[in-house]
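Tokens as discussed.
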């Protein structure tokens, strides 16, 4: 094979390989959402660990990545990437498993939780605390709410 054709063939193969690694988006359905939520609920009481992404300890985005991963959905690792990977929806349209993002000015960062429905969220809050349920209707969460993101397609 001539060098130019070889290069083209290699580039085409690489493009196919990279496309396969990205995986097809998981179709949004109640079964996948239920599995995400059940996995997250199974982590209640686990300790917050900065950078944690397994049952030995979670940070907020690690909990999201783990719950989605157990349902067969690849989710990015950090909050900014999770936010960018989905599409923005109105909070009133949120379904269980959608992501709720908050801004905490004192830390300068984003915080993410999994919406459970009925005004509740599960999240890994902060150092010294545990994965827990909270009402998103309380003033502290309402004041810091940024947006709702849907990762499922």
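Sequence:
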């Amino acid at each position: 094979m001539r060098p130019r054709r070889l290069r083209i063939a290699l580039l085409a193969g690489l493009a196919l390989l990279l496309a396969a690694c990205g995986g097809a988006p998981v179709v949004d359905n109640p079964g996948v959402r239920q599995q995400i939520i059940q996995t997250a609920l199974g982590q209640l009481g686990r300790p917050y660990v900065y950078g944690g992404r397994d049952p030995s300890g979670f940070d907020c985005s690690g909990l999201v990545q783990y719950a989605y991963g157990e349902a067969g959905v690849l989710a990015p690792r950090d909050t900014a990437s999770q936010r960018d990977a989905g599409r923005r929806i109105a909070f009133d349209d949120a379904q269980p498993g959608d992501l709720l993002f908050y801004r905490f000015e004192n830390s300068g960062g984003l915080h993410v939780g999994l919406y459970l429905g009925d005004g509740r969220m599960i999240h890994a809050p902060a150092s010294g605390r545990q994965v827990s349920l909270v009402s998103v209707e309380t003033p502290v969460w309402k004041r810091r709410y940024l947006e709702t993101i849907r990762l499922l397609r």
